Amino acid sequence: MPTPSKAPTMEQLELQEATLVFEAFDEVTALDLGSALVAAAQAEAAAVVIDIRTPDRTLFHAALPGSAPDNDHWARRKSNTVLRKHRSSMLVGMRNAAKGNVVGASLGLDPMDFADHGGSFPIRVKGVGVIGAVTVSGLASEDDHAMIVGVLEKMLA
């Protein structure tokens, strides 16, 4: 099992989002990113679901041994948050908590369709903006997020 990660600050999350930007992103990039996440999860024996999607299309999906159908639902809800807010699900959650908000009717976000827990990150393309979301579900919120960021840092270096 992975060593639990410490939650990043809002400033660190904003910096991650500003710097982890693709020059271009297509199906091949999605496959490369998904495969790198599978390898990272296998190296940690992490029972996770990995999902990469645009607003209207799944580009990559893998359910690793030990993951459960509930992880798929969490991945969908967290990626919906990213696709709606164009921010990582962890940053959305921290901003909501700072304001005393929770996902629900007051925010216009049905908790059956949205989750503001860590583990989904915007796929941002330089000169274009957010075109999708990459999501990991199955670990603690901070660890789901950290797995994505770690792979993105290596891939975009």
UniProtKB/TrEMBL annotation:
InterPro entries: PduO/GlcC-like, PduO/GlcC-like_sf, YBR137W-like. NCBIfam families: PRK02487.1-5 (NF002696). The lineage of its organism: Bacteria, Pseudomonadati, Pseudomonadota, Alphaproteobacteria, Rhodobacterales. It comes from Tropicimonas sediminicola. Gene3D superfamilies: Haem-degrading domain. This is Uncharacterized protein, UPF0303 family.
